[in-house]
Amino acid sequence: MSTAKNGVHIGPPRFKIAVHSIVWLAKSGNVLSSTMIANQVDSHATFIRRVMQSLAEAGIVGSKGGREGGYSLKKSAPDITLGDIYAAVNTFEADQEFNVDCGDAGEQLDLELEKILFEVEQRTIDYLQQYTIADVMERVDFFDI
Q1: Is the pTM of this model over 0.85?
Q2: Helix crossing, 34-41 with 13-28: angle to 10°?
Q3: Residue 107: which CATH number?
């Protein structure tokens, strides 16, 4: 989990990078390459491409191949919620899981923890649905890009 400078946890790095990337796409109004986005959000182009793939599969961004290719928004900023982004990038496939054999009691504990964590994640997504990219952009002072 990523931690902001003031110690507030803001979710997995994919979520933070995805939000920053979507904001830059919204601000630019253009097609941006993964390298351009990576430079703006202080990340690596390869990581950006993975994040963008998840966002494209969720219908949030579109991608265009070729020399003039890159990524653009498929929805407007007021139509993209933080919950949409979180759900798109917070996948089990992206996480490494470690299996520890704790016997039958451990399996029962794992099942109960999974139920609880599933509920936490659903509540997180429901809460994040209240905020759009446009809301976030209104809260931030941007310099020209």
Answers
A1: no
A2: 110
A3: 1.10.10.10
